[in-house]
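It is worth pausing here to work through a concrete case rather than discussing structure prediction in the abstract. The textbook approach is simple: state the sequence, then state the predicted structure, then interpret. We follow exactly that order.
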Amino acid sequence: PGWRQAKSLRMKEEKHKTQISNLVRKCVQLESVVRGKKIKEKHASERATEAEEMLNQVEAANSTLIQKQDQQITSLKGKVKTLETLLQEVRSESTKTVCELERK
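Step two, the predicted structure:
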């Protein structure tokens, strides 16, 4: 009877060793998956940061461009006013000249 009990214990021990080995293998696989996910998450985070930085640069460039365009528009409006004034002066002078010519 003692040898049967010993054999039974050895079989249980082998079964437990196999279960432990399988569990260790699964743990290693899960650690690898977790590590891979963390790396992917880190890369995604880095790409998101880069995209955000690029967006900020584009927004800054757009803001600068808009300011320059506003300045150009203001400058052009001033030139248009000046040209309109000159045109009125020329028309006025032309009218005066026509009137003087008609009098003669």
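Step three, interpretation. The mean pLDDT is 94. The radius of gyration is 44 Å.
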